[in-house]
């Protein structure tokens, strides 16, 4: 098999022990006696790095020597999680390191648990970027991820009386063994100031941007080890610092204190990751952050290009730049500015280059998430870029005029500048106008991008809008996080499923095999027992591994409908109180979710779920048949313990609103059954698995549109469904918040008077019915096991390697450069 051909890195347990103990002594100045687990973790990372850095150098020399075409993945977010376990697996050193540590009296899993998550992302979009760079390296593509070296990643979450509290994330408080600072590749970034027109001797003119402030971008490189460890690419993260060269005058004038203030101002630019779901409008620091990141990355890309090239027509042969959502859009006018103002290329030539370099991925249709920056703010921070955007737009409006002569409404819709009292720059429009390809992230989403979001652009550029369905890396999301199921698959279909997930299909014909079912269900049970311990540890709640583990983990957002899940839990609770003998398979509902700090309703839903959990878990009358747990601080490393232990995966967004979802894939790969709507990638999962092996419910995209068109009235459902009514009315009492009646009323209000934008009431009955089917099916463990195997075995398509091959062939035109 392919994997078996990969020579294992030669390393015996003895050598690994020696390397780790060596790092304890020589790297950390401690020894095996004194070292705590943190020190062991550090030493193990550094021992691993000796292999990683060697491979990194080989890859970089090879790529640079051949001047390969590469993709530059620009993303404000990379949700990497932990790297030790992942790197050990990809280097195929996990087993030997486990043995080595065991011989030293240490447990590798415990050591891995010491690592803080690299939480440089919000959710799906950031984790997708992390899966993609894993796949790019695994497949041997020359690629570089560009991101920001945030001092604080996504906030850490805890609960106080059920309410979310945010604390700063401190992932690198004591350093991070995986990153290498590269001061030799520092970049300088201008900001603010004014634009001067300089008249040339030949009668022409050009623009000079006189900056009002300058930042320094310091790159930190994180090696990205491909599976099999042939290719090691890099993730380059930019940290902002004050530019000493620029502050020199202040120093000379004796302004030491002023200079210190400038310094700390400069450092705030990369200080924190912005949590999403907050309209960043008017947030100057976010715009500065985006530009800082784009300027550093574009300059770095051009520096690498210029090492081997002088002919600008070659730029688009060597460089593809993928924009992960609109967050890095300013890279477009920045490249134009460098080509026109600094390299002094002709505008049309520069524009033709840009149109061959940039591609853009759209990750959401939610109107409030589409970035628009006020023209006034733009003018202040990036005066030259605004001029460039105006010129791009002026020329583009001529294209629109040629296509739809005299049609001003078309021009208004397609313009990069939104007119009005407060004029705005529409970043998505700039992306679509420039990019040579624009992709959505699942089939249904990409269709909606064409028909609902950008229909006029689609008419104008009929081949520009395409689909690339998301995927997840099976290295992290099966092999590393579920070692027992991974071992079963090694036995059943051969170890190379890790690089060819379609191989899992090998288990489909055996789904009814009793012995296989038993192994499969025993593994699930073991994983549930492990999770039960974690739940007890984190929340004090005791749960039984014989119950159905029903899990919803994702950012808290009304469109994802955690509140629908909550309504169903309340209904079950009510049924149990009304009838103590109500017959149901014991169920544990598990949540993990962070709410954006400024998103009131999301925080209320967290509060409500915590309050409901308190009540339900301490109510003798439900006889242990119902438990509710909200795990604090949901993050990648916690997710790795949840997916393998799930029986039910909740994927219940309003149809048309979840662009793809990727947690849905991680659950199914690990053998959970999905209760879900026909939305995002759920639809394609149903195609692969067979909808009859999932619990599909609710309105379809077309039905949602129709209902909204007719005029949706949530009260129709409220008055016609007594259970639904009593559940919602419960929220008006003080049953869950003793002494505080009305503490949960605003949730009810948003579902009724508020209009129930996300159609929770419309889908409630169908959802509740789906859960009855779940209950019935679970009683027949043979059927359940069969279904779980059929789900997991059919997930080959959702490997991020397949996504990357799609990007490489349809968008990037990228060829592999395997490193021997
Ligand atoms: C906005 C303003 C300021 C700071 C951050 C943001 C922002 C950041 C991320 C807004 C939205 C962001 O993410 C959108 C996102 O995560 N989309 C998800 O992308 C996944 C990968 O394609 C999909 O699977 C999810 O369905 C989609 O919701």
From TrEMBL:
It catalyses: [(1->4)-alpha-D-glucosyl](n) + phosphate = [(1->4)-alpha-D-glucosyl](n-1) + alpha-D-glucose 1-phosphate. The keyword Glycosyltransferase applies. Its cofactor is pyridoxal 5'-phosphate. InterPro entries: Glycg_phsphrylas, Glyco_trans_35. Gene3D superfamilies: Glycogen Phosphorylase B. Keywords: Carbohydrate metabolism, Glycosyltransferase, Pyridoxal phosphate, Transferase. The keyword Secreted does not apply. Pfam families: Phosphorylase. It is an enzyme of class 2 (transferase). Its EC number is 2.4.1.1. It comes from the Bacteria. Belongs to the glycogen phosphorylase family. Allosteric enzyme that catalyzes the rate-limiting step in glycogen catabolism, the phosphorolytic cleavage of glycogen to produce glucose-1-phosphate, and plays a central role in maintaining cellular and organismal glucose homeostasis. This is Alpha-1,4 glucan phosphorylase. It comes from Psychromonas marina. The lineage of its organism: Bacteria, Pseudomonadati, Pseudomonadota, Gammaproteobacteria, Alteromonadales.
């Amino acid at each position: 098999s392919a994997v078996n051909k990969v020579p294992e890195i030669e390393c015996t347990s003895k050598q690994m022990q020696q390397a780790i103990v060596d790092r304890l002594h020589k790297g950390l100045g401690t020894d095996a006696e004194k070292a705590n687990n943190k020190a062991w973790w550090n030493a193990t990372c550094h021992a691993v790095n000796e292999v990683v850095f060697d491979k990194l150098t080989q890859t970089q020399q090879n790529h640079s020597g051949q001047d390969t075409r590469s993709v530059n993945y620009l993303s404000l977010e990379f949700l990497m999680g932990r790297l030790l376990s992942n790197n050990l697996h990809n280097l195929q050193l996990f087993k030997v390191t486990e043995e080595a540590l065991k011989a030293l009296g240490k447990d590798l899993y415990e050591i891995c648990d010491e690592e803080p998550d690299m939480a440089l992302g919000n959710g799906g979009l950031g984790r997708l970027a992390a899966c993609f760079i894993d796949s790019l390296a695994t497949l041997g593509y020359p690629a570089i991820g560009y991101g920001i070296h945030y001092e604080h990643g996504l906030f850490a979450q805890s609960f106080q009386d059920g309410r979310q509290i945010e604390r700063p994330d401190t992932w690198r408080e004591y350093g991070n063994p995986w990153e290498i600072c590269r001061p030799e590749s520092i970049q300088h970034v201008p900001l603010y100031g004014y634009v001067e027109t300089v008249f040339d001797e030949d009668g022409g003119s050009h623009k000079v941007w006189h900056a009002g402030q300058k930042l320094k971008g310091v790159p930190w490189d994180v090696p990205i080890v491909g599976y099999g460890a042939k290719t090691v690419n890099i993730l380059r993260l930019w940290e902002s610092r004050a530019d000493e060269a620029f502050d020199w005058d202040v120093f000379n004038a004796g302004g030491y204190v002023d200079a210190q203030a400038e310094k700390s101002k400069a450092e705030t630019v990369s200080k924190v990751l912005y949590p999403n779901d907050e309209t960043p409008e008017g947030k100057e620091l976010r715009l500065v952050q985006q530009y800082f990141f784009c300027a550093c990355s574009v300059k770095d890309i051009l520096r690498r290009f210029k090492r081997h090239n002088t002919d600008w027509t070659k730029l688009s042969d060597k460089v593809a730049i993928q924009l992960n959502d609109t967050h890095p859009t300013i890279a477009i006018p920045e490249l134009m500015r460098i080509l026109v103002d600094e390299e002094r290329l002709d505008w049309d030539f520069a524009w033709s280059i840009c149109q061959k370099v940039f591609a853009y991925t759209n990750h959401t249709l939610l109107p409030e998430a589409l970035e628009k920056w006020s023209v006034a703010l733009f003018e202040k921070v990036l005066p030259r870029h605004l001029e460039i955007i105006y010129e791009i737009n002026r020329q583009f409006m001529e294209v629109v005029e040629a296509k739809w002569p005299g049609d001003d409404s078309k021009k208004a819709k397609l313009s990069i500048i939104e007119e009005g009292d407060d004029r705005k720059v529409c970043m998505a429009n700039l992306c679509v106008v420039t990019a040579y390809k624009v992709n959505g992230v699942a089939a249904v989403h990409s269709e909606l991008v064409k028909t609902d979001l950008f229909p006029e652009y689609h008419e104008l550029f009929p081949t520009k809008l395409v689909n690339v369905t998301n995927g997840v890396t099976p290295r992290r999301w099966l092999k590393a996080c579920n070692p027992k199921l991974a071992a079963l698959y090694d036995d059943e279909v051969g170890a190379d499923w890790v690089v060819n997930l379609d191989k899992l299909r090998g288990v489909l014909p055996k789904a009814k095999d009793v012995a296989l079912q038993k192994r499969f269900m025993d593994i699930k049970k073991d994983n549930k027992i492990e999770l039960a311990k974690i739940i007890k540890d984190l929340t004090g709640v005791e749960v039984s591994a014989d119950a159905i583990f029903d899990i919803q983990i994702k950012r808290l957002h009304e469109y994802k409908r955690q509140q629908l899940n909550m309504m169903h839990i309340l209904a079950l609770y009510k049924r149990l109180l009304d009838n103590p003998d109500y017959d149901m398979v014991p169920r544990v509902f598990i949540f993990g979710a962070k709410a954006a700090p400024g998103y009131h309703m999301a925080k209320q839903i967290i509060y409500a779920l915590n309050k409901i959990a308190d009540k339900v878990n301490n109510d003798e009358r439900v006889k242990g048949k119902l438990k509710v747990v909200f795990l604090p601080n949901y993050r990648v490393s916690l997710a790795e313990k949840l997916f393998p232990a799930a029986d039910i995966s909740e994927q219940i967004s309003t149809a048309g609103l979840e662009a793809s979802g990727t947690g849905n894939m991680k659950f199914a790969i690990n053998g959970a059954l999905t209760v879900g709507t026909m939305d995002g990638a759920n639809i394609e999962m149903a195609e692969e698995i067979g909808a009859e092996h999932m619990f599909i419910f609710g309105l379809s995209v077309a039905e949602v549109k129709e209902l909204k068109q007719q005029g949706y009235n949530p009260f129709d459902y409220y008055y016609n469904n007594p259970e639904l009514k009593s559940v919602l009315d419960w929220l008006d009492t003080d049953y869950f918040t003793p002494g505080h009646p009305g503490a949960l009323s605003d949730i009810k209000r948003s579902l009724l008077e508020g209009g129930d934008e996300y159609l929770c009431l419309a889908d409630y009955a169908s959802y509740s019915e789906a859960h009855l089917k779940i209950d019935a099916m679970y009683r027949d463990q043979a059927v359940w096991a069969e279904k779980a195997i059929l789900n997991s075995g059919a997930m080959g398509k959702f490997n991020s390697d397949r996504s990357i091959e799609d990007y490489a062939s349809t968008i990037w035109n990228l060829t592999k450069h395997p490193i021997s």
